[in-house]
Amino acid sequence: MKSKTFFISLTIICLAFYAYASPDSLLIKANIHYIDGNFDKAAELYQTLVDSGYQNAELYYNLGNSYFKLNRIPYAILNFERAYRLKPNDEDILFNLEFARTFTVDRIEPLPIFFLTKWYRMARAILTSNGWAWTSLFFLALTFTFALYFWFSSRGWIKRLTFASGILTLLLTIMSMVFSAQEKHKENLRNQAIIFQQAVSVRSSPGETGKDIFILHSGTKVEITKALGQWVEIRIADGNKGWVPSETLELI
Amino acid sequence: MHKKQIISILLFLASCASIVVAQDVEFTVTAPNVVAVGEQFRLTYKLNARPQEFKPPSFEGFYILAGPSTSTSSSIQIINGQMTQTYEFTYTYILEATSEGKFTIDPASVIVSKKEHKSQQIAIEVVKGTAGQSSTSPQQQSDTRPKSDSSQDTEDVFVAVEFDRQTAYRGQPILATIKIYTRQNISGFDDVKFPPFNGFWSQDVETPNNIEFQRVNLNGRIFNMGVLKKYLLFPQRTGDIPIDPFEIVVLLQQRGGRPQSMFDEFFGTYQTVRRRLASKPVTLKIRDLPPNAPASFTGAVGRFNLEAAFDKTDIKTNEAVNLKVRVAGSGNLRLIETPKFEFPGGFEVFDPKTTDRINTTSQGASGSKTFEFVAIPRAPGNFDMGTLEFAYFDPVQENYVVLKSKPLALKVEADGSEPTNLQMVGFGREDIRFIGQDIRFIKTDGFTLSTTNTILFASFRYLFLILFLVILFIGSFIWINHQRKLRGNIVFVRTKKANKMARKRLKQAQQYLLESNSEKFYEELLRALWGYVSDKLSIPVANLTSDNAKETLIAHKVSEIDIEEFIKIISVCEYARYAPKSEPSQMNVLYDSALTLIARLEGVIEK
Predict the structure, then answer these.
(1) Chain A: closest CA distance from residue B549 (Å)
(2) ipTM associated with this complex
(3) Which listed residue, A196, A223, B73, B205, has the most CB atoms within 10 A of its CB?
(4) pLDDT surpassing 70 at residue B7
(5) B446 and A58 in contact by Cβ < 8 A?
(6) Distance between CA atoms of B146 and B157, rounded to whole angstroms?
(7) What is the assigned CATH class of domain A22-101?
(8) Which phi and psi (to 5°) does residue A56 adopt?
(9) Contacts (Cβ under 8 Å, ≥6 apart) of A216
(10) What is the nearest CA distance from B443 to chain A, expressed in angstroms?
């Protein structure tokens, strides 16, 4: 009788340990499910991790992959976009995002961007906000070093060299600070969303009285420019604007 | 064709009977399956041989009005010297039903060539009410029936489209039967309009050209029912689909009309009436197939089985191989699309050839459909292609069934042409062919799970790091400056003040000169010179000798003359210090030369 109760308690303890799975083991389990082709189980586990607050680009990417394999394209795009937000320069994320986008219905011709703006944005996107922040600290340290050399050196050529370098690194410090601030703004600004409803008609004004302007399908990315009650004003890549109910969208 | 002959002729010909081909004995019975109470009807036994004995059954529930009356017919055919003789013996009873109900008439038996043969048991349904246009004895039909008015006519003749089921899944066949029900004589049809069956893919089911009427009981009334046409319908759309009515014009022969001649009065008058009939519109409910269709589902509904095999499994490269996929069963065979099958890369695949053998019967379309995939392997190897899958929807079980073929594998050996291909490597190069597209694989390592994506910029940590750098900068600035000052007090400042010190000492020496204290004068003059060089060149006085002073002065690019002057003054002073007496004029000259020398050295070493 005693041994029986012992066994029962042991089983309960074991079950409790099993139920308390560490996040890393959950991740490994999800990966194994994905490799075995059990995409629904993999998606479920990744989603559990995301819901419990983990915010890795890789986690979103894996979740997006699982949803893609389950043919839930809007969910896949949403998670790829979230991964892309966190890691804009990851080749795999970009590839899968582009690939998933080919499964959406809407083809939108984006507005042309002035090439200098494009270059500026590309240069800024080389590093994340944190990357630029660390770069700015590095350049600041360099500037100070050059300043000290400039101050205490008695030789003319060292003074001239350190002066020029100091000015350059000071400019670089300011630039990386600006980039860091702008990237931070971009990362904090959650104004992009994915259409989740199969088809949603975009109206000229909020409310049911608005006239239908165009129709968007699930998986299309939009930018939210305004919100009014249950309605949000959206702008699509080609610059067209309209109002949709907020429940048809999911924020990236 | 039978020819009725009299028995005498039959007997005459009996001499030839030895050549008669032996036949199977057939003994059949015919009777209407529905009769009304009080109606007279005919029941006939037919035998294709000469009987020795005939035993009729007891006709329980029926009253025998007449019979058995026998009739005999025989025919002889001679084809190319072969003679065939057929007999037909007929026993006819005329019966009358006495009460309602279902009655069975037991089989009758005959003995032919000492063998007993039995007819089938038949069932006759007896219903209440007046009989319709009886096939047995229309002329005996009493004329008490009122003249047919239109309202009764519509009841007497009508058409209907009957379906074997009202609801079906998309693709599940529905049998539509177009029937005519009549209680009157029909002499012909005209202007037949069959429904178009929109929303269905329809196929004719073969029916006999002659319309065979059958007596049926419809709500207690007896009708003659004939099947005009049968269709097998395969629904293509879902929802409630209305079926347009079937329209026909029938030519009815009606008794009545005014007699026009004495013969008419005698035989009765008939007139032909045209009547347009239309069936009632019907709506069929077509359900869509369940959504959880397997990937290999291509629209097959019914019940099938699958065979798939290569015609040969060991082949050589550049040799065609045939994959035969045969789907057999019943269902919408004609609408089945080619099953999906992916050959591995390295195979040249041609469009599949499709052949079908389908019989359309009222049970549904059954048969088989064969798909032949022709492929030519271009590279050798063992190819395991898995199994071919074919899914269909079973409307009876209401689920999808996935059939799997046996594993398909091919062994491809290289043929002779391979090496020549290898020699022409430069020609054989081609772009990578992408045979599939997919997303990239998940990321399994190289990251650790983190809860929040903290942004460094403008955070407390960032500001702290900047402050730290600033403090480090200011601190190191102050520290370096301090170090400089410390060193400057000992060496730098002293160097700068060397001239001042020397002049101070020379002034003291001049004082002693005026007092004529020669010993003190020389001593002070030496201290002025040594002190100056020591301060200026940062050499401690204790280490200073005339030799190393000379070297250091040379290193500071002081001219030879000045150095000699310096050495000379020093040696003169050293010498005169301990001399008994000295001339004041000599002391004056020495003082002046020391003064100018220091002034000159100051000019040289400063640079």
Answers:
(1) 28
(2) 0.74
(3) B205
(4) no
(5) yes
(6) 17
(7) mainly alpha
(8) -95, 145
(9) A106, A195, A199, A200, A202, A222, A236, A244
(10) 6
